[in-house]
Automatic annotation (TrEMBL):
<feature type="domain" description="EF-hand">
    <location>
        <begin position="41"/>
        <end position="77"/>
    </location>
</feature>
<protein>
    <recommendedName>
        <fullName>EF-hand domain-containing protein</fullName>
    </recommendedName>
</protein>
<dbReference type="InterPro" id="IPR018247">
    <property type="entry name" value="EF_Hand_1_Ca_BS"/>
</dbReference>
<dbReference type="InterPro" id="IPR011992">
    <property type="entry name" value="EF-hand-dom_pair"/>
</dbReference>
<dbReference type="GO" id="GO:0005509">
    <property type="term" value="F:calcium ion binding"/>
</dbReference>
<keyword id="KW-0106">Calcium</keyword>
<dbReference type="InterPro" id="IPR002048">
    <property type="entry name" value="EF_hand_dom"/>
</dbReference>
<dbReference type="Pfam" id="PF13202">
    <property type="entry name" value="EF-hand_5"/>
</dbReference>
Length: 122
């Protein structure tokens, strides 16, 4: 599975990783695990990456179903549980979609901490 850079100016690529048991690719670089390790401009690019990849209908919002379907396409298991937990704790305005800056930031952090997403310099 190849990964296209989403930040060509700094040549950083986002690798979405699952457990090795799921036969997904594994990266030997050390991961970034918290938002404090990332520049604000990169956080903005990661938010855009999520919208570009998970917002299936292109309305600028990510629904629970869109997030679940995106995670399934990436090979994650228990996607209903993962998305349910994410929305329970991070849908701050309780409208059923990820649509504001604070929620998108939470989604970036969720990816880093819970989905084993890694940002590596290529």
């Amino acid at each position: 599975m190849s990964h296209e850079p989403f930040c060509s100016s700094c040549e950083i690529t986002l690798n979405i990783l699952c457990n090795l048991e799921q036969n997904m690719p594994f990266c030997h670089f050390s991961p970034v695990r918290t938002l404090s390790d990332i520049s604000p401009s990169l956080i903005d690019e990661l938010k855009q990456w999520w919208l570009t990849n998970a917002d299936a209908d292109g309305d600028g919002r990510i629904s629970k179903e869109e997030l679940r379907d995106f995670l399934k396409r990436q090979g994650y298991w228990f996607t209903s549980n993962r998305t349910g937990q994410f929305f329970k704790h991070n849908d701050f305005n309780h409208n059923g979609v990820i649509d504001d800056d604070r929620e998108l930031t939470a989604l970036v952090e969720f990816g880093l901490r819970n989905l084993k997403m890694k940002i590596v310099k290529m």
